[in-house]
Design brief:
Layout (H helix, E strand, L loop, with lengths): L30 H15 L3 H7 L4 H9 L18 H14 L1 H6 L1 H13 L2 H13 L21 E4 L3 E8 L10 E7 L5 E7 L5 E4 L14 E10 L3 E2 L11 H30 L16 H33 L3 H33 L11 H10 L6 H13 L10
Antiparallel strand pairs: 1-2, 2-6, 3-4, 4-7, 5-6
């Protein structure tokens, strides 16, 4: 395990790229194996998750195990040698990993989203090339969001045509996974204002990734600033991402469902921590009339309520995954809108239970649960940080417009 040597309070230097895997990644056979591998990895990932958060230790060994396990290629189509599992299974995999360490769960989200986009918009030759990279264990990071734009979908990063390649210039932030990626998909506009994924080599000249992520939560998502200075990307790696949103496709719902799964994972971890603390450390309240904290009727009620709400979110998460499966196979205005709507419903419930469970943890476990030695506040910090990815208040608007006025959700990566 490697500790980051670049401190966020003085980050100014580029982080060097990591070597690509020398051994091909495992290729998962089916949905059952994907879930089993996720559980096996989670057992290991949870062991040092608190320490990684506290000391901001990069999950280097864990990330290698995750991407080499085959879980980073589970949505590669069968036609190209992938397992093509259900998106309900993919979401469950991310939830399981995120319950162990939500930063690691988040690192995979853009990789899996880009793999889905390649299926939607790339031609067969490009699909074969890029799916082949994913199957080998190559990790895609991301350089999507920009810090100074008016809206999340406004991009200033642009590329110019240079024959067999393009040249890109710009600056990115919130680049989850970019520090230890092997390839970095950069969202850049062409001269018509259309957004493409220009997938650059992590070690490309002019591509600088800086370890300056300073959020109080999701501290080891390997994010930071990406500076793009005349970076060359071959046209073989230029993916027309805009095509995923100029007509109904499942791409937006796929990016969203992965977000949902991270949050249900955080909620699961918080409830598990609460139960463990109440059963092993908490004291019964003086007026309760019981000897054990776990016999407190108010605590019993609260755990039941939290678990019920988590199960509701998980049920919608599974339903959303199945709806996405249908929209991938048959992308129509109706199937895509249905997938977006169910995913939005799941996003609302997952956000609410993640915040509630991580907050209720301290109320139910008691004062000693706030001691620094336990670092239980990491769950609340992670939930509060990750659920800000896109505002849930707008999900209610999407649902109301759909059910009241028959208006389909907008087509973009946040819907």
């Amino acid at each position: 395990m490697t500790v980051s040597t670049v401190k966020t309070d003085h980050a100014s230097a580029a982080v060097p790229p990591v070597a690509r895997p020398t051994v091909p990644a495992h290729i998962i056979k089916d949905d059952v194996e994907a879930i089993a591998i996720a559980h096996a990895l989670a057992v290991e990932f949870v062991k040092d998750s608190s320490r990684r958060d506290r000391e901001r230790i990069w999950p280097v060994a864990e990330l290698d195990a995750f991407s080499q396990s085959g879980l980073w290629s589970i949505n590669v189509p069968k036609a190209f040698g992938g397992p093509e599992v259900s998106y309900a299974t993919l979401a469950k995999v991310i939830e399981i990993i995120s319950a162990a360490d939500s930063s690691i769960g988040q690192i995979a989200q853009n990789h899996l989203g880009v793999v889905a986009a390649i299926r939607t918009v790339s031609d067969p030759d490009q699909q074969k090339l890029l799916f082949g990279e994913a199957l080998k264990g190559t990790r895609f990071g991301n350089a999507f969001s920009e810090f100074g734009s008016k809206r999340a979908a406004d991009f200033e990063t642009r590329f110019t045509d240079a024959g067999d390649h393009v040249v890109i210039n710009g600056r990115k932030f919130y680049s989850s996974g970019a520090l230890l990626a092997h390839l970095v998909p950069i969202v850049a506009l062409d001269d018509e204002g259309r957004a493409w994924y220009a997938i650059a080599d992590r070690g490309a000249p002019g591509l600088t990734v800086i370890d300056d992520w300073s959020s109080f939560g999701q501290r080891t998502t390997l994010s930071g600033t990406v500076i793009i200075d005349n970076v060359k990307v071959p046209k073989t790696h230029l993916v027309p991402g805009y095509k995923g949103y100029d007509k109904p496709t499942a791409d937006g719902a796929i990016f969203q469902i992965i977000q949902v799964a991270v949050d249900t994972g955080i909620a699961q971890a918080a409830i598990d921590e609460t139960v463990h603390f109440v059963r092993t450390r908490s004291r019964a309240w003086i007026d309760s009339g019981v000897d054990n904290a776990w016999d407190d009727p108010y605590t019993i009620h609260a755990i039941g309520d939290l678990t019920l709400r988590l199960h509701a979110a998980q049920a919608l998460l599974e339903k959303a995954g199945l709806a996405i499966d249908r929209a991938v196979i048959e992308p129509t205005a109706e199937t895509v809108a249905h997938a977006q709507i169910v995913t939005a419903e799941a996003k609302i419930l997952s956000t609410e239970i993640a915040i509630a469970a991580t907050n209720k943890l301290f109320e139910l476990a008691g004062t000693r649960s706030t001691l620094a030695e336990h670092n239980l506040d990491r769950h609340w910090r992670n939930a509060r940080t990750h659920t800000l990815h896109d505002p849930v208040r707008w999900k209610y608007s999407i649902l109301g417009k759909y059910f009241l006025n028959g208006e389909n959700p907008p087509l973009h990566a946040w819907s």
